[in-house]
Every structure is written in C-alpha cells, then in structure tokens.
Design goal:
Elements (H helix, E strand, L loop, with lengths): L12 E5 L30 H14 L3 E4 L12 H15 L5 E6 L11 E4 L2 E4 L1 E6 L10 H18 L8 E3 L10 E7 L6 H20 L1
Parallel strand pairs: 1-2, 1-3, 3-8, 6-7
Antiparallel strand pairs: 4-5, 6-8
Helix pairs in contact: 1-4, 3-4
C-alpha cells in the first residue's frame, strides 16, 4: 500500500487551516502575548495561525496557490472544534474545488514548557513536526485514509532524506479528523508548548522545501 511511485493528486493548490486556531507557544522576549487560556491566545499574530502564515508565504514563493484560512474554530468554545472546521473546509472547497492537499496545522498539546521537540538543521534549532493521520477505525466513512497516509509517507521519506529528524514518527488514529475531505489531507503538529514561535515559524521553510521536492516529482 505504501509503495507508491507517484501521487495522483492536484499538486498546485494547497489549503491550510487550523482546527485549534488559538494554540500558542512558550512566550519569548520578541513574542509576548496576552493569553486567552493555557498556551492559547486569540491574537493571530502569536498563535499557530502565524506559523500557517510562514508556511503559506514559503509555499507561495515556490509557485503554489495557497489558501490560508484563519477562522477561529476553538474560540469561544473548544468543544466542537472539528465540526466547525469541517464546515469551514467544506465551504472553501466550494470556491476552490479540486483541492486535494488540505493541511490542518496544529501545535502538540502538552500544557507545560517541559516538552519541546526540536531538531538542529545547520546552525538553526527548529520545532519538530509530526503527521497525524486519521483512519476509518472509529466507524466513520473515510475512503481517503490510505491515500492520505501515502502522501504523509512520501513527504516524510523526503524529509528524512533532506533534513533528518525534522519529523517525528507518524501518529495514526481511529479518529477521522475531517481528513475524508481530501486525497492528501493531514494534520501536521508543529512543535509543542515548550517550543517558541520563532522555532515553529523557522521550521516552515524546511517543510515547504520538502513539500516542493515531493510535489515536483
């Protein structure tokens, strides 16, 4: 199943959104923010949405068409976030039909500063990344999950080749995480609560380079 030579997907259009838009990082001197909860902020300049801006800018510089949606799905209520983000993505697919690469960008959710998965690339320390791939194991219809996994594996193989340690092992789950909406849909966790926004934004140039290498093949 994983021995796929080429991906049968639309490789020009990329959608980025955030089910947990308010997820934030350990504050630094340059990135102090007003918290709206534990490692959470509604200020989009300091949350994972800012990391999405960095990824979007990098991908656009490579020539991709990028939709970056920064709708709040976890504020004012956290419960029901995935239902709200599903509605957002479904609406975006009406105006951007045929988009297969759908990235739900998150920050790993351990609510203290002790866990900061990082990797040194050259002289730079950046946040590690992790794919979370849903399946049909929870009983919800999900015909795309094997294609989603194939996409994640190809990206991770290229990342291991270019930047060893950039990705942590792929996490698979019985939850669907709205990934039935695309042929290359995934969650990518960028760092954790112990990482900084600087580290997480910096890792996006490496992710964009990896994605570009995979999609050019």
């Amino acid at each position: 199943m994983l021995n796929v030579q080429s991906l049968d997907i639309n490789k020009k259009d990329i959608m980025i959104f955030h089910t947990h838009t308010c997820e934030s990082y350990t504050p630094t001197e340059n990135y102090q923010y007003e918290a709206s909860g534990t490692f959470r902020t509604i200020d989009l300049n300091y949350s994972v949405a800012r990391v999405g801006d960095s990824l979007s800018e990098q991908l656009i510089s490579y020539g991709y068409n990028v939709i970056h949606d920064k709708t709040y799905h976890d504020y004012p209520a956290y419960s029901g976030s995935y239902g709200r983000s599903m509605a957002t993505v479904e609406n975006l697919l009406i105006s951007h039909p045929g988009t297969d690469i759908i990235i739900d960008l998150h920050r790993d959710a351990i609510a203290d500063t002790t866990y900061a998965p990082s990797v040194k690339i050259g002289d730079e320390v950046v946040s590690q990344l992790m794919f979370v791939i849903g399946t049909e194991g929870g009983g919800l219809e999900h015909p795309n999950w094997q294609q989603n996994l194939q996409f994640a594996v190809k990206v991770q193989q290229k990342a291991n080749e270019l930047y060893p340690g950039l990705f942590r092992p792929i996490l698979m789950s019985n939850s669907r995480y709205n990934q039935h909406l695309g042929k290359a849909a995934c969650i990518i966790e960028v760092g954790a609560t112990g990482n900084t926004l600087e580290q997480s934004m910096a890792s996006m140039k490496y992710l964009a380079k990896v994605l570009d290498e995979v999609l050019k093949e």
